[in-house]
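[SOLVED] Need 3D model of a two-part complex

Original post:
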Amino acid sequence: MKEKAYRTASNCRHYAMCKIDYLGTGLCASGPERGFVTFYPQGRMDLYKALVDGTVPVTPAAVEAAATCTLCGICDRQCCFVTELRPQSVMHALKEHIAGHVSANGEPASPDEDEFILALKRITGEKYSSCDPAVLVCYSHDPCPVAPPRMPKYAAVPKTADEVAAIVKLCAEHSVPYAVRGNGSSVMGFVMSEGLVIDLIRMKEISFDERNYKVRVGPGVTSYELQKEALARGFRINAAEPAAMVCANIMCSGIFSLFSASYGINADNLVTAGFVGKDGKRFSMHDHDSPNLFAYSKEDRELPGICIWAEVKLHRIPEDETGVLVPFEDLKDAVAFARELSFRRIGTGIGILGGEYISVFMSPSIELAEKIKNVFTRTLKINYPVLVIGDKYDIEAVRSIKPGVIDNDLFRTLFLGLPSLAKPEWPDLIAQMCGDKKPYEFLSEQSIRPLIEAALDPSPENIASAFPEDLRGFFGQVYEEPAMTDLVKLNELRILSSRMGREKHVLAIIVYTPADPEIIAILNEGFDAIGLKNNIRHDYGFVTPLDFGKRAVFEYDYYLDHTDPAERGKAGAALGDIAAFIGRFSSEHPDVKWIRYTLYQGFARKEHILYAD
Amino acid sequence: MPIENSRSFFITGGTGFLGSYLVAALCRKNYQITLSVRPKNGYDAETRVRRAAEWFGLTEDEISNISIGDHCHQGQEIIHCASDTDFAERNRREIEASNLQYLEEVLKMAKSKSASRFHYLGTAYSAGAVEGDCPEELTYPEKFTNVYEETKNRAERKAYDFCKNNGIKLSIYRPSIVYGESGTGRSRKFNALYYPVKAISFIKEIMLKDILEKVGKRAEALGVKLKEGGKLVMPIRLKSISGGKLNLIPVDFFTKAMTAIIEKNTEDGIFHIVNSGAGDLNELIEYTSEYFGIEGLKVVNGDEGEIKDKNGLEQLFESYVKMYLPYIADRRVFLTDRTAPLLESENIYCPKMNYDIFKRCMDYAVASGWKDHM
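Solution:
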């Protein structure tokens, strides 16, 4: 039991999905109450592992973290949906560990507090600053293979911009370095510090200005929370990963998604933003004398301050909007098609997905994902489905360019019938009966639809059967909700994307590139070769055309077991090869740009990033 | 102790459907065999050979006649069975690689190792898109039905030219469509004849489930009904052409025939291993309907044009039928002037497909869950 709990705790990927209420279960109650990650399931997983490893002793915060878990089971549902992990076993083990310690040794003593922490507490209030190792350890590491753990001395969860400004001044006075953190879900080692970690999760302002098509967002607001609010008002934002903080995401690399095909990237997504500078003074991007954050240069840069709010653009949504998947066997054909759509202004969201993406996103388990990937890629020859989201005119245009699309009804049938689709009989039938047609063309024949439905038996119960038995009833209800199988909603809220890291931690390599099929194919082959050379799992991610088909954003993914030092080593070596490959390639093709060089330049104009030399 | 046979063979494709039957037959006759086998589906070469041998029930002595190797020995005979039987144009590159480029490599090996004879396993359908008599000769048709036929025809010509130029004796074997064993129904592979039958069986199952366990709306949308008495009506019209035949041979006949020709023939030659009493699609539909207890399958004359107002099931079968029509309604007549006398002298005849044979084969396929034993 304890071993299982330890294994589960070690495998937390820090994707922070337990911090957003994406299944309608509510959140682990102590998290929003206390703010520190330690009081969310993610933190308790880290804490349990640290206690077992002996990295931290049992402390008052550890006792409190264990005591505030009510064993309600929300974390099991949330985490199982994304990662197949069952954190509740860890929560039981944590409680048992703490109870055993307290019974043997009595209540633990509070850690010594120095002048800095006392001052910090005066700013935030007693509860919201800490130097307790049980709190700090949850801010000390992430799964990045090249970022060693760094234990901070302090952590704070301020509520207001004034508090942030005061903290920054305090750090300057005491020469304490600090790192600023949203949800820490970037998992690239950017949000660690030996000094103070400022966690902005409590700063949850959302103020709509519908007349001006913008919404003001605090740095503790996640993409999911903002998108939900925007959708409720009939608007949409260009959102990144659901648990990523909107401000942090803009600040870090700029937001891109499949909707970037029309909404753009980086500065396109916002009106303005406000900061607390390093001197603790505040400024806005639109102040005449503020630093020029619109400019981009290919160099490591620092932000001139902490983003404490951003005004994000709101986009209207047509009532007749829907999504379709246009299957392609060959990447170059898919890129050419997506580029053409973008060039012709067809579609609001466009993305070329990979077989890995679509099967992992749709499947509730690793085992099913593997089978489904084979069905999609080997049997149906759907290697590169192009997802297009658009209004009825867009979709009509797509169909006229490329008949044989998977519309949302068929997608829903495949999704809810996924366990049946994984059985060999059905795909075999399609493969054998399709003659000289491509198997996927066959799939989209309207007249065959009743047969497909009869064969796959699509239903919430069917897809829920892929979950562990005790959670099937719950997930059956979750899949009753049409949004769970709606291509538009799934891409607005992106709740499935964290499944990318279910089997292993995902290391995403992202480049801006000309939307040129040849160039993207060469990049894909290069990344593929690096994965093979380093014996590390790897796969194509996605491509989205940008700026009317002139450029594209391309993601390629590597996967590693972050708990295995050998795999971390291989991933580190692969990263070296990737840097060299992109360096060589971009010297020949200067318009290919690694997103690594846009770090902390997320406010820059896309034109500076994509086109300026 | 088995008596060692003086002839020995290097065989490609020896773990494939036809190749494995041939290997088993030659092993039983104590010929020495070298098999070129690649690892596949997670099995190494040795395991693949061992699994095949076990399926055929070969004794350890018989198995000991087989060795695995990438190259033939000096003076060995080569039997080239390796082939890609895919018809799809979209897979042309892979089909050409298998049916032409690999053949070229094996031919070069035959030359470098002074192979005493080259046996090439072709197909009767290399005759191409023609009608009427197809002689046991090299042919140069203007058109082919598909990339398979085309590459197999090109391969014959390539083998012929190469062997002629290099003084290697050449035998070309041209079977028609091969199914399981006529006597037992056993088969290592369930393709060709089995595909549409399997499809019918699968569709019947899901339609019955829809009718019996759901409200049957999907079955209704496809025009499928359950009659009193339990027969399922599946309205599927299949397009055929008048006078078209379906030339099926059981794999036991193929094996006996090819083995006999290998043993008895000493000259260069092309051999049609076909059924002189070819049946037609109507018979197959009759057997299928009877076997699965269904009604509604019907052959319509496609000479008069396309079937109108196709339902979903007909749509499903359309592409299949379109691709296989030249085989299920075939106007080619494969002459057997060279082969027939030789086989008759050995008392080898091809049984005509009938319901009993069909039932035996389908019983075995169903019992195997339609999963190949490859």
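Edit: Residues 63 and 99 of chain A are 8 Å apart (CA to CA).
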